[in-house]
């Protein structure tokens, strides 16, 4: 393998040459307490850190950046930490998805505009993983994604609690009067016991696993609980390794391929991963110039069943998954269907990285011969209601609803829905289908996670816990139920969902991958002629920019101007 010479380093243009501009750069390095031996002939490693005081999934990333720095220094590089937008899933409104592309742009431009030779990406809370990776792919420097890792298990009165999933579950129990206010307060104190990401198989755990399966993280990294001492050790290893990756010029483009994305999608299926991953994987692949559409998820979901017995599809949590052997063990179970020749950031193939991996807790990671669910993790349905597709997670839905025809109750937007579901006199049965409009990429904007529409209060009291719900929104990976999401095109741009009215009938057939609105073409044409686009929610600012430039869900919701239209020039240094 040919290694770069020091003068080939990108940072050399800032720090290594002899002109007035580089004098200024070196003088400022000295202002920072550095001396020539700190930078001369050394790769500068940018640590893009999504730590924030309002993102408790990333509380430890401030300290972990120091672990990475230790590794970079030991490896012979110069670490520099660059803070980036944190995308705190619980706190950012209306939705972190609105800001994923902003983080992607920030990551790309932080790397481009500074004297950086290689990147360590510190993230994990939901959209931070795809945001960081999309930006790093577009920039094309050697990169390692360092996952924040999941929280420890939640606990309430000796019962295990899972992020999100148990919040929804016990909220319904409270609405039904089955638990007290004191119980609810105790659950609030026990459901998030440590730093780290949500510890069910939500979007965070799914995307961290996908990053590893793509080859962008060190082997086993994504499964390590944030509070485990293996986590800072992994950070130190990443710091050491990224320096070599710079010398070897191992860029994301040399790691990512059609086969790598197929591996990641198969892993996603075996994990019972979040539906959000479809949008993010499509967006990441497009940044790498790799064609991927959501039908590939559907194809592979028919080949790979769910093996990880982790909530919301299963029983355990990510801490258990780690003890069971983690992602290396799961990938070893899948070895016959993975492309083992794909390269990864440590310079080894997937096959080499999973060699010797074993499942220690077979009820947590099942073998292919005994999956936890024969239903795939993801189904892509199409029909006259969703010409460009919509998705659902059959493994997390009541089986009786996978083939269903019912009368619609339609809501024009989130506030309309939120009012109606609390009404005691709402004319609704468990066989009705709830439809939410104007919650898509442009209509939300940002596709908020409103897709698990609340079960109407009246039905909750009757013991109903699942019903068919359809929207152009997304759903939290910690959610569950017969929720049909990402309907494309969305209602805000006049997709067929916009034309649905209360009293219509919709039929879904998940095994046949069909969704059909039982309204005649003539009637739909009449409604279309009368339809008017709602006013945009944001008249100015980033929200307006987002709504103007975002693609639809099946396109990955990336901005049109961030598509790989050709190389972006390196900045002029003068
Ligand atoms: Fe951060 Fe769920 S809130 S991962």
The strand count comes to 14
Largest sheet entry: 6 strands, mixed
Terminal CA distance: 33 Å
Low-confidence stretches: none
CATH fold annotation of the largest domain: Rossmann fold
Report on this structure.
By secondary structure, the protein is α/β, with parallel strands linked by helices. The chain has three domains: 42-152 and 194-354, Rossmann fold (3-Layer(aba) Sandwich); 155-190, no CATH class; 379-530, 3-Layer(bba) Sandwich (Glucose Oxidase, domain 1). The protein is built from 21 helices and 14 strands. It has helices at 12-15, 20-31, 36-39, 61-75, 97-113, 128-139, 165-175, 181-190, 203-214, 230-248, 252-255, 258-271, 276-287, 295-301, 318-323, 326-333, 350-354, 414-420, 457-461, 521-530, 541-549, and strands at 44-49, 78-83, 118-123, 143-147, 154-156, 159-161, 379-383, 386-392, 403-411, 433-436, 468-471, 483-484, 505-509, 514-517. Strand 10, helix 19 (457-461) and strand 11 (468-471) form a beta-alpha-beta unit. Helix 7 runs antiparallel to helix 8. The longest helix is centred in the middle third of the chain and has 19 residues, at 230-248. It is globular. The mean pLDDT is 95. The site of FE2/S2 (inorganic) cluster has 10 residues, from loops. FE2/S2 (inorganic) cluster binds at residues 57, 89-90, 125-126, 163, 197-198, 202, 204.
């Amino acid at each position: 393998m040919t290694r770069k010479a020091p003068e080939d380093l990108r940072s050399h243009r800032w720090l290594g040459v002899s002109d007035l501009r580089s004098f200024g750069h070196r003088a400022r390095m000295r202002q920072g307490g550095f001396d020539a031996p700190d930078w001369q002939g050394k790769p500068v490693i940018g640590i893009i850190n999504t730590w924030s005081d309002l993102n408790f999934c990333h509380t430890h990333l401030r300290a972990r950046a120091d672990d990475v720095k230790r590794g970079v220094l030991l490896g012979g590089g110069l670490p520099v930490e660059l803070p980036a937008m944190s995308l705190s899933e619980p706190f950012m409104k209306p939705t972190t998805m609105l800001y994923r592309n902003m983080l992607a742009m920030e990551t790309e431009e932080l790397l481009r505009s500074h004297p950086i030779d290689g990147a360590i990406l510190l993230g994990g809370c939901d959209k931070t993983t795809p945001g960081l990776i999309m930006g790093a792919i577009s920039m094309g420097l050697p990169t390692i994604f360092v996952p924040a890792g999941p929280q420890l298990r939640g606990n309430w009165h000796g019962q295990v609690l899972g992020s999100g999933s148990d919040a929804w579950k016990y909220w319904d129990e409270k609405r039904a009067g089955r638990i007290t206010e004191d119980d609810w307060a105790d659950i609030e104190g026990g459901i998030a016991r440590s730093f780290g990401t949500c510890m069910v198989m939500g979007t965070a755990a799914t995307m961290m696993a996908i990053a590893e399966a793509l080859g962008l993280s060190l082997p086993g990294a994504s499964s390590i609980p944030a509070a485990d001492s293996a986590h800072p050790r992994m950070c130190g290893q990443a710091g050491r390794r990224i320096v070599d990756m710079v010398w070897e010029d191992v860029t994301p483009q040399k790691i990512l391929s059609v086969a790598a994305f197929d591996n990641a999608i198969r892993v996603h299926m075996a994990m019972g991963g979040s539906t959000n991953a479809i949008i993010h994987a499509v967006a990441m692949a497009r940044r790498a110039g790799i064609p991927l559409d959501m039908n590939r998820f559907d194809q592979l979901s028919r080949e790979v069943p769910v093996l990880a017995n982790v909530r919301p599809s299963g029983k355990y949590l990510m801490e258990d998954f780690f003890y069971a052997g983690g992602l290396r063990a799961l990938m070893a179970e899948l070895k016959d269907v993975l492309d083992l020749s794909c390269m990864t950031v440590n310079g080894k193939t997937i096959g080499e990285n999973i060699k010797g991996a074993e499942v220690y807790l077979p009820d947590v990671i099942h073998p292919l011969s005994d999956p936890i669910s024969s239903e795939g993790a993801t189904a892509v349905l199409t029909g006259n209601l969703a010409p460009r597709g919509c998705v659902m997670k059959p493994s997390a839905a009541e089986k009786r609803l996978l083939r269903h025809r019912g009368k619609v109750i339609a809501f024009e937007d989130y506030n309309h829905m939120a009012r109606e579901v609390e009404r005691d006199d709402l004319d609704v049965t468990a066989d009705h289908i709830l439809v939410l409009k104007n919650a898509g990429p442009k209509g939300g904007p940002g596709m908020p996670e409103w897709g698990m529409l609340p079960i109407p209060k009246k039905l909750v009291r009757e013991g109903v816990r699942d019903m068919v719900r359809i929207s152009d929104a997304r759903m939290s990976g910690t959610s569950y139920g017969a929720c049909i999401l990402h309907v494309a095109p969305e209602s805000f741009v006049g997709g067929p969902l916009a034309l649905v009215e209360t009293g219509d009938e919709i039929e879904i057939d998940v095994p046949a991958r069909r969704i059909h609105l039982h309204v005649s073409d003539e009637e739909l044409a009449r409604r279309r002629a009368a339809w008017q686009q709602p006013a945009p929610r944001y008249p100015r600012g980033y929200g307006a920019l987002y709504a103007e430039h975002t693609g639809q869900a099946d396109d990955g919701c990336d901005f049109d101007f961030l598509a790989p239209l050709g190389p972006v020039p390196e900045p002029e240094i003068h």
